[in-house]
Design brief:
Elements: H1 3-20, H2 46-73
Length: 76
């Protein structure tokens, strides 16, 4: 499993949890990220950015479909 697949699965998990539980957001930083020229996300290609965006769109679409099915079953 590569980093992109892990990130997509993390994103999907958060969406699934938010369908059943109220979640919040931590507005203040809890850690500092230091990026350097040798890092994996320093020189990300436009192609990879587009692929990541498409994956997130697909995950969101599935989340919407799950929510619609849930609402239909609940009679909402």
């Amino acid at each position: 499993m590569n980093l992109q697949e892990i990130t997509e699965k993390d994103y999907e998990m958060v969406l699934k949890v938010s369908e059943y539980y109220r979640i919040g957001r931590v507005w203040d930083p809890i850690y500092e990220v230091v990026r350097h020229s040798g890092g994996t996300d320093h020189s990300i290609s436009e192609e990879l950015i587009m692929r990541n965006d498409e994956a997130k769109d697909d995950i969101r679409r599935h989340a919407i479909l799950r929510r619609m099915a849930y609402n239909e079953m609940a009679g909402r």
